[in-house]
Amino acid sequence: MSEEIPVDWGQARALAYEAGRRAAGPAETISLPDADGRTLAEPLRALTDLPAFPTSSIDGWAVRGPQPWRVVGRVLAGGVADPLDEDGTCVEIATGAMVPAGADALIRIEESTRDADGLVSGEPRAVPEWRLPGEEAHQGEELLPAGTAVDPAVIGVAATCGYESLSVRARPRAGLLVFGDELLTAGPPGAGRVRDSLGPQVPGWLRRCGAVVEPGAIAGPVRDTLEAHLEAVRGALATADLVCTTGGTMHGPVDHLHPALAKLGAEYVVNTVAVRPGFPMLLARVPGPDGRTRFLAGLPGNPQSAVIALITLVAPLLAGLQGRPAPRLAMVEASAPVPGRGGFTHLALARLDHDGRSAAPVGHVGSAMLRGLSHAHGFVVVRPGAQAAAGDLVPFLPLPLVAGERP
């Protein structure tokens, strides 16, 4: 494999998503409590009308005909009342109870009276105070499409419909290999060595994109030799659908990732992206002995660049692998000028205001810095050959949320 011309940032995201979509695994059926954070593999449809029967919205009386009404029974939630067959009769009814057939209206208990003979009087409100069958959904109606991220609200809808389990996509398994002899895994940096900040943080970003990352799937620092790289990559790909590596994406004297991929028979999905920061990054398919495709995402060694590579290539890939829609950009107002980066897309760290409508650039945004990232909600996107002035509407790429969380 050889170096390629950098791919446009938007095109790279599309290529990564499509690669994941084509490699998405089969569906599996799991119980409702276990479905949180997963993705619907098929549409969620109403099994019955919702509500399935006329349902009282109040505590009071279900009445028939003109008042006063003679009480002939009571119906509570979970019970079934006999029909009201005669005018001038009523039943006491509780919120959530089934409205008996033949009822004309419901009277609130606090807006009714009962005389010495036990007869009930009162005036119904203008708007009927019961829910009709199908008011929320009709039997067979699609409530949520395939590809919906399952969260507690989705689980609640499924339970309301009567589901006990859901058909969901398998969660991709991800691993991480940290490259670099210069890295420390403990203690403060010094004496020519720097502290590894990607090993502790990348698994969290991967989980927020929906991947499973087990503690044993994180390894490094891997020694700066081709043999060590090959051994580490082969081992990681044996159990993971996706392996992320940090560092070694260039062609320096100790950058062995490209030669390792060549020996593994890998095929680039994307090889370098025209984006700053974040250059260079890559995504490759790696054939497995079982015929199933695995992926390797090469993240740059500089921390902010690595995170940009992750949300540029890995987030769309994982969305595709889970059958979710491709991540989309929001539009916000730039509250300050954001420069362009010539022929490259510029991803500028920014923080949203309290209502999420405008974004302000943050400081400390060097490729090797993380302080700015810790204060940001995402990135203002400035297209190649452009710049953003204060007040311009600009695309905004958010940092990944907790899996299934609503923005």
From TrEMBL:
Domain MoaB/Mog: 175-320
Family membership noted in the UniProt record: Belongs to the MoeA family.
Organism of this sequence: Paractinoplanes rhizophilus
Protein name per UniProt: Molybdopterin molybdenumtransferase
SMART domains the record matches: MoCF_biosynth
Function: Catalyzes the insertion of molybdate into adenylated molybdopterin with the concomitant release of AMP.
InterPro entries: MoaB/Mog-like_dom_sf (IPR036425), MoaB/Mog_dom (IPR001453), MoeA-like (IPR038987), MoeA_C_domain_IV (IPR005111), MoeA_C_domain_IV_sf (IPR036688), MoeA_linker/N (IPR005110), MoeA_linker/N_sf (IPR036135)
Entry's EC annotation: 2.10.1.1
